[in-house]
Specification:
The protein is about 40% helix and about 10% strand. It is α/β, with parallel strands linked by helices. The longest helix has 18 residues.
Length: about 375
């Protein structure tokens, strides 16, 4: 049976890190001048040596994005169904050890959320929950998806990793894509960040995209939480994972997101990443992989999101609420993380149009 674990075990974190930081400006020039780049080129593009080439990288990233995706930016919004979670994670507002009010939306509450989100114009929605199998397991997902599906053309989900047969049960209900972030590929420190709960099983989470690929999902979303460990090394392993998946499950589409840790409560991220470094990473992904969907969320500031639109991003969220029921009512349920860009969907859409792009609220319908 195919498994990325076999590839992962052949790569040492410390050796990969040393290799990235040893890349030279000559390596960066070689990567920029190639027609088709490999993982060694990606290392060069995310290395400190690529920093002086940021303007050249941005120009190339923009050209490649326009060639593949045209002047379009797709918009989506998350709908949080539950903040109940059985995991303890050192960085997350939903962590089990946070003594906050927990909420799982009822059918009636979901209906109210649908009504508000639809009034914004959205047809693409991302369903999000904490990881609490007994409360928000497959049975809950089945009911929620059946209720939500008639109202949206495109539904993705970002929930707890599931078994292959569970994905196979949900996909026919109308799930288009599944996002699952490894958080960090630093196996030794993964346990420190996830000390309790099913999420503490590094290998089960690492194997999730394989289970999704075998189940036949249309799109798999990958990413790491920027701020947990060295972002360059984590990003290489994410690109390695992507490279493996594309070769193994070649019918599937892929996306990468860039969740940069935001503070919650009084906790700050372990590792800082500057705006300039995030631009470098986004451009590096685009230059490495022209087919990849790249997503930026409302974790980032208005100024950053305004400026990154033309540099490789294909998908943005707007008007996001990260607490269950947050669209229909002002609840006191705990948010997963703080929002930085608080503009309405219409305000973000106007910004995108102002830069000469078409806003895509709905790009396809499933065939009959």
């Amino acid at each position: 049976m195919n498994s990325f674990l076999n590839v992962f075990e052949q790569n040492s974190w410390e050796e990969v890190k040393a290799s990235i930081y040893s890349k030279t400006e000559a390596d960066v020039r070689i990567a920029l001048n190639k027609k088709k780049r490999d993982l060694e080129d990606f290392k060069a593009l995310i290395s400190p040596s690529a920093a002086p080439f940021l303007e050249e990288m941005a120009k190339l990233s923009r050209e490649l994005t326009l060639k593949r995706f045209g002047n379009t930016i797709q918009m989506f919004v998350p709908m949080y169904l539950s903040n109940e979670c059985q995991n303890i994670c050192t960085y997350c507002g939903f962590s089990l050890d946070n003594p906050m009010r927990r909420t799982t939306l009822t059918e009636k509450q979901i209906e109210k959320e649908i009504e508000v989100v639809k009034s914004y114009g959205y047809d693409h929605i991302l369903l999000v929950t904490g990881e609490a199998n007994k409360t928000v397991g497959v049975d809950y997902f089945e009911k929620a998806i059946k209720q939500i599906r008639p109202h949206f053309a495109n539904i993705s989900m970002e929930v707890q990793p599931l078994d292959q047969d569970e994905y196979e049960k949900l996909l026919p209900l109308g799930i288009h894509g599944v996002l699952v972030y490894q958080e960090t590929y630093h196996e030794d420190n993964y346990k420190f960040h996830h000390p309790k709960g099913k999420k503490s099983n590094f290998e089960y989470r690492l194997d999730t995209p394989d289970r999704l690929g075998r189940a036949g999902v249309h799109k798999i979303g990958l990413g790491v939480l920027i701020g947990l460990e060295d972002w360059r090394t984590d990003s290489f392993f994410n690109a390695l994972h992507l490279d493996y998946l594309e070769k193994t499950y070649w019918k599937t589409k892929y996306s990468v997101s860039f969740p940069r840790l935001r503070p919650y409560a009084d906790k700050e991220p372990k590792v800082d990443m500057s705006d300039r470094e995030l631009v470098q990473l986004i451009c590096a992904y685009r230059i490495f992989n022209e087919e990849l969907e790249l997503t930026i969320s409302t974790r980032e500031s208005e100024k950053f999101r305004n400026n990154i639109i033309k540099l490789g991003i294909t998908t943005v969220s707007a008007g996001s609420k990260t607490d269950p029921g947050g669209y229909a009512s002002n609840t006191d349920a705990l948010e997963q993380f703080e929002i930085s860009d608080e503009r309405t969907p219409q305000e973000v859409a106007s910004m995108i149009k102002g830069q000469g792009y078409e806003v895509v609220w709905k790009d396809w319908d499933q065939g009959l």
